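Weekly modeling sync, notes
Attendees: S.R. (lead), two postdocs, one rotation student

Agenda item 3: backlog of single-chain predictions. S.R. asked that every request posted to the team notebook include the full sequence so nobody has to chase files. The rotation student volunteered to paste the first one in as an example of the format we agreed on. Action items at the bottom.

Example entry:
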Amino acid sequence: MMIAHASLPADNPKHVAGVLAEIMGGEALPFPPGGPDTWMAWSGDEAIELEIAPRGRLMTTDAAEGANWRDQRTGLPRGSEAHLAIAVERPLSEIMEIARRAGWTTGEYDRGGFFKLAEVWVENAFLIEFLDPAQTAAYKASMTKANWKKTFGMAA
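Predicted structure, as returned to the notebook:
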């Protein structure tokens, strides 16, 4: 199984797509189905595709057409209920440098001894956690159902 793509909000989708594409060693491209100001960030290996839409452009459902983008941009808080974790080929230090150049809050954090990651707050509002190759290996080793149950005292 895999997650085929994900979408996230941004004040400046073109800029965000460019920065995220750089972190992932890929390319930013327009995303016409989301509107003229919606962009995509592709990873270099094309395994990850992120759709970046203007903050406040919500996905809504329409029984006849399915999901549609709708503008709802007034009075929205700068935060999100969701976040992503993405494994990339860059070291955490490079990820954080790219994010800092973009003016975004970033830092390296330990997640309870399971693994470390770089928190990147896209436009200081949306969280993406990036794992470098070493931390991806630590994530894969520690984030199993069996280890989770053992660590938190859940029945097997």
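Discussion: group reviewed the output briefly. Residues 112 and 151 are 11 Å apart (CA to CA).
Action items: rotation student to repeat for the remaining queue; S.R. to check formatting next week.
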